[in-house]
Specification:
Elements: E1 10-17, E2 20-27, E3 43-50, E4 53-58, E5 63-73, E6 77-83, E7 88-90, E8 93-96, H1 104-107, E9 111-115, E10 121-123, E11 126-130, E12 132-136, E13 143-146, E14 149-159, E15 166-169, E16 172-182, E17 198-202, E18 205-208, E19 227-229, E20 235-239, E21 242-245, E22 261-265, E23 267-271, E24 285-288, H2 291-305
Parallel strand pairs: 3-5, 4-6, 5-7, 5-8, 6-9, 7-10, 8-11, 9-12, 10-13, 11-14, 12-14, 13-15, 14-16, 15-17, 16-18, 16-19, 17-20, 18-21, 20-22, 21-23, 23-24
Antiparallel strand pairs: 1-2
Length: 307
């Protein structure tokens, strides 16, 4: 179970890069948005092993307390929630059981968590072995993901294809085919231009892990890019993160289109592939080939947030 830590908890991870020291700070961020605030904010408590859970007419401010709930197996959509503003999911542990040889086309139709309400929050969750880990759809503007541990995700770790504003904070993305997606697709409805929004990734660890089955089945095992972005997607704000890539991505490595990087500082790219890192990186990134940089950061994250 992941611990819920307050604003005062600050931990500096000191990374040795090319003989210098770079501090990557992992902190609790601003106060949690989804602490119950009185009788007007209902709580739904889930316990035990769950099948697919879907509630799409929740009252504003509903807290889904899943700290004692488990999802296991091949449930296509484990936890689906929507309704009025301010819905929060906390503590879910969702584990898929698909074979590594399951085609990408099958995994693409699965997601651990799907949220469709504005100002939605997902915190202290564990999602392993799914297509998408967390998917924000429809009206999920101004979402936030805190202290999430996502691993072996065969498509997008965080999908925001409705191109809303959102924040990923203090999270461990320990193996994504594609880390972040904000790209529309044929037949999608109800999407507005998100280019005025901001998508923030801060104080998080992101590994682009090669998967046995890829989108087009060529060059397997392989990955997509860190950011799957289009012209109408939000601008990006990247601060204090550690990224890891083991091989050149099948598409563009970092994947940030020109003009989309609004602000950026103190990021590290751990590059374990052949030769130089294959794609241009902004000046706010440092590159290292030292895998221990990643390993130390992961250990520090677990000491800070549990799991």
């Amino acid at each position: 179970m992941l611990s819920r830590l307050g604003l005062a908890v600050v931990l500096a991870v000191v990374l040795a890069i090319a003989g210098t020291a770079t501090a990557v700070v992992v902190d609790g961020g601003p106060p949690d948005r989804c602490v119950p605030r009185g009788n007007d904010n209902p709580t739904v408590t889930l316990t035990g092993t769950q099948g697919e859970y879907e509630r799409n007419a929740l009252h504003g401010g509903t807290l889904i307390d899943a700290n004692r709930a488990r999802w296991q197996g091949e449930t296509s959509y484990a936890l689906v929630a929507g309704g009025e503003s301010g819905i929060c999911i906390t503590g879910a542990q969702i584990t898929g059981s698909w074979s590594p040889q399951t085609p990408w086309s099958v995994m693409h139709g699965t997601a651990g968590i799907v949220l469709s309400s504005p100002v939605a929050t997902v915190q202290d969750v564990r999602v392993h072995d799914y297509g998408d880990a967390i998917r924000f759809v429809d009206h999920a503007q101004d979402w936030e993901v805190r202290r999430a541990w996502l691993s072996y995700i065969r498509d997008d770790c965080i999908e925001d294809d409705w191109q809303h504003a959102g924040t990923v904070r203090d999270s461990l993305l320990e193996g994504c085919y594609n880390a972040f997606s904000s790209r529309t697709y044929d037949g999608q409805s109800g999407v507005s231009d998100g280019s005025g929004n901001t998508f923030t990734v801060t104080h998080s660890l992101v590994w682009l892990r090669p998967m046995a089955k890829t989108y087009n089945g060529e060059g397997e095992p392989g990955t997509a890019g860190f950011f799957k972005w289009d012209d109408a997607a939000p601008k990006l704000s990247l601060h204090g993160n550690v990224f890891r890539a083991d091989q050149q991505a099948g598409t563009v490595g970092l994947g940030i289109p020109p003009g989309k990087l609004a602000s950026c500082s103190n990021n590290v790219m751990v590059w374990l592939g052949h030769g130089r890192y294959p794609d241009p990186l902004p000046r706010c990134f440092r590159v290292t080939r030292n895998v221990h940089v990643w390993d130390r950061a992961v250990r520090q994250w677990h000491r800070q947030f549990g799991g």
